[in-house]
Structure to design on (681 residues):
């Protein structure tokens, strides 16, 4: 234990008296004397009642053994100078400003104490009222005994009433549990926020009841147990404290907490005794519901904005492609027109027996048609800027798409297996465009099954539960979790798509169908249409075991 | 039997030349070709065609302009016009039952057979 500091106070006016009063209370400090030439000064009087030696001349004490510090409260510079010259080596002189400062601090403390007293009394009265119920109200006027809230063996806490007052009166909802998870403090703000009274919890381990209907740990418990596993079972958001080692921060929604739905931020920190043993944990609660709501609004607005921006970009892109497409269409189709007329001309000129010439001309004609088909599809890109959106029944769209390709199904030994839900919600869609989508998908399925097979068509409504296949693959993020969507799946038993091609199939001009088949624009047009509907499309497949194309669309609100 | 007079207005000379050959070869038509909208407009009055095949995109006076001028003139307002276009899609033409802005419509590249079919349906 360090030795007590010995101090000398010079000047015993108002300021000197305050110093005497303050230092006499501090255990670690001994006042060896109070000096003033006026022996009736208030500080001298106080010193006498406290059995502190007094004198008219400071020199009497100057050479007392162990003097550490002299407080000059006279405010006189001349005395200060004298002191500096005559003080023994190692003795500190505190005067002027420093002393004034101390005096200010003392005044402040007095004020705070005064306020605390008033507050404690007021609270006592309130508690009295509530507890009293219908019995006559007798205000309790004596200051509250916070020690009552503290278990007797928690010595560490019993000592400093100021700390108790700070916790009790803090505007931040706060509670403290000891290492046995028993509640030591549950402050007024905490009562206010949770609607649970301190008297129901103090000394028990029932603090969870304030938040939950089933027993489970609070962040303070987790800090006490120092077990930071499985936290996602307990909180929506959590992380280690950024300020305190082994502290924990968590956030979540609570319904009907203190009568309201609230978003609460918890911060818990471990409390150690002087030996570093964990003896308690303090937990604070902050209600940031309003902020959270504003934040969520902001997030929503941001998503909407992003969505709009995406649409604009998309529309802009399509516009460019569209202009390009009409330009190309004009430039390419005119020569194609000439070639075709030329071929027609030659057809009439060639005698019927020249078979190979006819074959050549037929090849020329087919090539013209192929080139024309590319131009046609390219033009498709330009026509999506204006979707004609209406609430549509997806099943009826599927049906009419199917009827457009029915002949092909029938001629190629393919069975349709419909697994269609009756009450699928309506989608906001451009009917013609969506028909084009499903026709493209059906045609691909037919082409993937030259030997015949099955096509299963599913449609159903559902709520997006979390990040799924489609939602995670999507860059734009138009869908929100919990949003209602309509899902269409078209599954075939054809050749399938190798894993490495699953994304490529949506790229323009990607085709495996060679010269005879497609140009590789079917699915890229399809994807474009789906994106214009702010939907998702993706393909899944096991190579050799068929392919499944899934389309997810927003429902019409 | 009188051959039908068909006026072809299109700035693609090779195209018009082949069209002329192909259509005249059928023996059913007398073809006159003009390679600009302006010339086509003035040729209409003296040639008095039974039908005009009119390209839309032309440098000096485009097809819709020519059609408008012809509509405004008592002598020419009833002459059927079939538009030729390289920009529209076949499906769009079909979706509008082959008519856009009140006029029949064919998309290039066009097969002779189809061309004859349209002429037969529209010429008076
Ligand atoms: N159901 C499917 N089964 C197997 N492969 C498929 C299936 N659907 C698409 N593919 C693959 O994706 C490629 C691209 O399809 P996409 O529809 O874009 O073009 P395409 O069918 O080749 O030509 P287009 O549709 O323009 O006539 C196809 O060539 C094929 O390899
Ligand atoms: Mg295809």
């Amino acid at each position: 234990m360090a030795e007590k500091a010995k101090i000398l106070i010079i000047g015993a006016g108002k300021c000197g008296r305050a110093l005497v009063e303050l230092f006499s209370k501090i255990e670690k400090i001994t006042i060896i004397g109070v000096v003033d030439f006026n022996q009736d000064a208030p500080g001298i009087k106080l010193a006498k009642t406290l059995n502190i030696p007094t004198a008219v001349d400071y020199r009497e004490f100057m050479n007392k053994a162990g003097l550490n510090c002299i407080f000059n409260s006279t405010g006189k510079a001349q005395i200060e100078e004298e002191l500096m010259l005559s003080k023994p080596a190692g003795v500190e002189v505190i005067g002027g400003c420093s002393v004034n400062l101390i005096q200010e601090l003392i005044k402040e403390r007095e004020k705070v104490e005064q306020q605390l007293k008033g507050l404690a009394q007021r609270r006592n009265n309130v508690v009295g009222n509530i507890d009293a119920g219908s019995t006559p109200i007798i205000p309790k006027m004596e200051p509250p005994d916070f020690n009552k809230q503290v278990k007797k063996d928690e010595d560490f806490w019993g000592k400093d009433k100021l700390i108790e007052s700070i916790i009790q009166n803090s505007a931040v909802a706060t509670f403290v549990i000891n290492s046995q998870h028993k509640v030591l403090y549950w402050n007024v703000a905490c009562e206010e926020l949770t609607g649970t009274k301190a008297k129901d919890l103090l000394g028990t381990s029932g603090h969870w009841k304030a938040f939950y209907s089933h027993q489970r740990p609070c962040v303070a418990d987790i800090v006490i147990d120092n077990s930071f596993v499985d936290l996602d079972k307990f909180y929506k958001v959590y992380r280690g404290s950024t300020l305190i080692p082994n502290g924990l921060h968590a956030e979540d929604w609570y319904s009907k907490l203190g009568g309201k739905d609230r978003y609460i931020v918890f911060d818990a920190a471990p409390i150690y005794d002087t030996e570093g043993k964990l003896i308690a944990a303090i937990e604070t609660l902050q209600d940031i519901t309003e902020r959270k709501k504003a934040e969520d609004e902001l997030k929503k607005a941001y998503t909407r904005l992003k969505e709009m921006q995406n649409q604009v970009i998309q529309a802009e892109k399509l516009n460019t492609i569209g202009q390009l497409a009409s330009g190309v269409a004009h430039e390419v189709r005119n020569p194609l027109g000439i070639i075709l007329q030329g071929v027609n001309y030659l057809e009439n000129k060639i005698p019927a027996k020249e078979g190979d010439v006819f074959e050549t001309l037929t090849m020329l004609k087919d090539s013209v048609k192929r080139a024309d088909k590319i131009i046609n599809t390219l033009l498709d890109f330009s026509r999506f800027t204006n979707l004609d959106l209406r609430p549509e029944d997806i099943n009826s769209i599927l049906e009419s798409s199917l009827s457009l390709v029915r002949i092909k199904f029938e001629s190629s030994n393919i069975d349709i297996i419909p697994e269609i839900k009756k009450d699928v919600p309506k989608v906001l869609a451009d009917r013609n465009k969506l028909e084009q989508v499903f026709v493209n998908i059906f045609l691909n399925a037919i082409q993937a099954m030259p030997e015949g097979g099955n096509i299963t068509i599913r449609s159903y409504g559902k709520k997006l539960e979390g990040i799924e296949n489609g939602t995670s693959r999507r860059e734009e993020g138009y869908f929100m979790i919990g949003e209602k969507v309509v899902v269409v799946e078209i599954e075939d038993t054809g050749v399938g798509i190798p894993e490495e091609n699953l994304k490529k199939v949506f790229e323009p001009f990607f085709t495996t169908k060679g010269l005879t088949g497609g140009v590789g624009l079917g699915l890229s047009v399809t994807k474009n249409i789906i994106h214009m509907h702010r939907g998702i499309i993706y393909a899944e497949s096991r190579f050799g075991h068929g392919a499944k194309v899934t389309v997810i669309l927003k429902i019409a609100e | 039997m009188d051959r039908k007079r068909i006026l072809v207005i299109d700035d693609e000379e090779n195209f018009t030349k082949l069209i002329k050959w192909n259509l005249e070869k059928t023996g059913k038509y007398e073809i006159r070709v003009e390679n600009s909208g302006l010339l086509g407009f003035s040729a209409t009055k003296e040639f008095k065609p039974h039908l005009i095949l009119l390209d839309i995109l032309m440098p000096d006076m485009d097809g819709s302009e020519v059609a408008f001028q012809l509509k405004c003139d008592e002598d020419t307002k009833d002459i059927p016009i079939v538009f030729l276009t390289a920009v529209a899609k076949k499906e769009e033409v079909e979706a509008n039952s082959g008519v856009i802005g009140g006029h029949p419509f064919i998309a290039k590249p066009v097969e002779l057979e189809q061309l004859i079919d349209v002429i037969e349906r529209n010429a008076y």
